[in-house]
Amino acid sequence: MVGEEGAFVLGWDEVLTEEELAVTLKVLCMSEEEFKEYKEQGGWEDDSEEEEHSLLSNEALSRLKTPCKKLLYDSVLLTLESYGSDLKAEQDLLNNKETYEKLSRREQQALHVRYGQKKILHQLLELVH
């Protein structure tokens, strides 16, 4: 369902792997009976529901049903826990010019990437909370 990478790609304004996330959320938030029916039908062949084909923009994420929001929220928390430091630590390092300049160019780039990832994840937390 999630693809080879096993991850979803989030941007500042929308989910970039929208189809994978939409299907995953739909399946994971199904009741046991709905899931049995889904399996018997072999998935959705001609699912014409509007939400299935719409972009998962930030606005759409904030309107998800409560079980899907909780699932996303908990998943984001687990992802954030997998980092060795929190968002504040990254901000502090970026704001401390002396310490930042002691980092190698590669470490500085990695810091910016981690900080951006964490900012997007925190934004998602706010959208689905």
Outline:
Helices cover 66% and strands 0% of the residues.
Structure description:
The protein is mostly helical and 129 residues long. The protein has one domain: set domain protein methyltransferase, domain 2, CATH 3.90.1420. 66% of the residues lie in helices and 0% in strands. The protein is built from eight helices and no strands. It has helices spanning 18-28, 32-41, 50-53, 58-62, 66-81, 87-95, 97-102, 105-128. The longest helix is centred in the C-terminal third of the chain and has 24 residues, at 105-128. The two termini are 25 Å apart. The mean pLDDT is 85. Keywords: Methyltransferase, Nucleus, S-adenosyl-L-methionine, Transferase. It is found in: Nucleus. Residues 4-121 form the Rubisco LSMT substrate-binding domain. One of its GO terms (biological process) is methylation. GO terms for molecular function: methyltransferase activity.
Q: Which series of helices and strands comes N to C? A: HHHHHHHH
Biggest sheet features: none
Strand elements, count = 0
Quickly name the level 1 CATH class.
Answer: Alpha Beta
As a whole number of angstroms, the C-alpha radius of gyration is 18 Å
| Mass-distribution shape | elongated
InterPro entries: Rubisco_LSMT_subst-bd, Rubisco_LSMT_subst-bd_sf
Main location: nucleus
Keywords: Methyltransferase, Nucleus, S-adenosyl-L-methionine, Transferase
GO molecular function: methyltransferase activity
What are the salient characteristics of this protein?
mainly alpha, set domain protein methyltransferase, domain 2, elongated
